[in-house]
Amino acid sequence: MKEQVVVIALGGNALGYNYEEQRKAVEGTALIISDLIEEGFKVVLTHGNGPQVGMIQTAMDELNQIYSMYTQVPMPSCVAMSQGYIAFELQRAIKAELEKRNIQKNIVSILTQVGVDANDPAFEHPTKPIGRFMSKEEARIMEKQGLKCMEDAGRGYRLTVASPKPKKIIELDVIQRLIDEGDLVIACGGGGIPVAEKGGELEGISAVIDKDFVSALLAKEIGADFLVILTAVEKIAINFGKKNQQWLESMSLDEADAYIKQEQFAPGSMLPKVEAAMEFAASGMNRRALITLLGKAREGLLGKTGTVIYK
Ligand SMILES: Nc1ncnc2c1ncn2[C@@H]1O[C@H](COP(=O)(O)OP(=O)(O)O)[C@@H](O)[C@H]1O
Ligand SMILES: NC(=O)OP(=O)(O)O
Q: The Aspartate/glutamate/uridylate kinase domain covers which part of the protein (predicted)?
């Protein structure tokens, strides 16, 4: 049987909120990814970077305030740094776990640039929360400094930056080649480094792309069988958090559309995941998107849990 290609988008739970949490979370993530490889799936990994890119940007800005010799670091370079150190930890931990299981596989991280439209309306309306959670008072102080903040799914306030839609994965050819050769590729981390063409060259753009949208694009482009979005809930619910909450095992595109119209999915958290899942499912009859918990990825892919979005 043909190996099934699975794009796995790792959310906050798989990465933790600071360096120590990340090291521990990544060890657990390596076990789960190794189980999938042992099960026979061809895995391609993407990951988020909201907490990490905010931490890097804050650190860089504060360094610049203390030592004037350090200049500010633009957001696309902060995204690149987040890609690099998150991928390093994932690459290291997965390789070590596979070796324990006597599985020989190259784990390759690709610093990925992703083309965006420099005129995307998203630049007028920032929606991507990054960095640490703040109190309302802290957020107000930030706003007085001209920064945008928003409340994030009941967890506190966070700095908020523009999140344009991903249009083109610049390193797609090399990603495809490595997948075809049987390597485990880690790509499009943190949504990818946002770039746009200017004067015949690519220029970094100040934004953070949504990892779920870029994962859907990557999954489409490489002809994946599954897009798996791993997050903090086992299934999607309608009437989420209410007395009449109902967990969903599956959702057709038409059903998902109807639920979106009923505002069943919170903007900035579950809504973009459902939209990304729909985008992938809509691209082919045998293409399925799964949303579930990190620890349930294997069960979900074997059809035992999670919410499947299908055409
Ligand atoms: N209808 C819904 N069904 C399930 N979860 C929902 C729903 N609406 C909002 N959520 C929330 O969305 C969260 C996932 O979004 P988020 O925390 O931004 O993801 P991640 O950081 O893993 O990418 C869930 O943990 C849950 O709290
Ligand atoms: N870039 C991105 O979507 O990161 P999070 O998943 O951490 O929000």
A: 5-284
Closest approach atom of ligand 2 to CA 9? 6
Helix-strand-coil split of the chain, %, nearest 5: 40, 25, 35
From the list 34, 43, 53, the residue with the least C-alpha distance to 8 is 43
Q: Compute the residue count for the chain.
A: 311
* CA 17 – CA 31 distance, rounded (Å): 19
The interface predicted TM-score of the complex, written ipTM, equals 0.97
Cα(235) to ligand 1 centroid in Å equals 10
Q: What was the pLDDT predicted at 154? A: 80
Q: Is 191 in the pocket of ligand 2 (CB under 6 A)?
A: yes
Distance of CA 227 to the CA centre of its chain: 12
Mutate to test the pocket of ligand 2, among 53, 210, 229 (most ligand atoms within 8 A of CB): 210
Residues forming beta bridges with residue 161, ordered by sequence position? 128
Question: Residue 18: its pLDDT value, please?
Answer: 86
Q: 81 and 56 in contact (C-beta within 8 Å)?
A: yes
Asked if the model's pLDDT at residue 282 lies above 90, the reply is: yes
Cα–Cα distance measured from residue 147 to residue 308, given in angstroms and rounded to the nearest whole number: 38
Residue 48 near residue 12 (C-beta atoms within 8 A):
yes
Structural domains for the chain: 4-116+169-236+268-304 (3.40.1160.10)
Please tell me the predicted confidence (pLDDT) of residue 19: 87
Q: How far apart are CA 266 and CA 270, in angstroms?
A: 5
Question: What HEC string does 47-99 produce?
Answer: ECCHHHHHHHHHHHHHHHHHCCCCCCCCHHHHHHHHHHHHHHHHHHHHHHHHH
Amino acid found at 33: I
Asked whether 112 and 202 are in contact (CB, 8 A), the reply is no
Q: Which two tokens stand for residue 212?
A: 């779920």
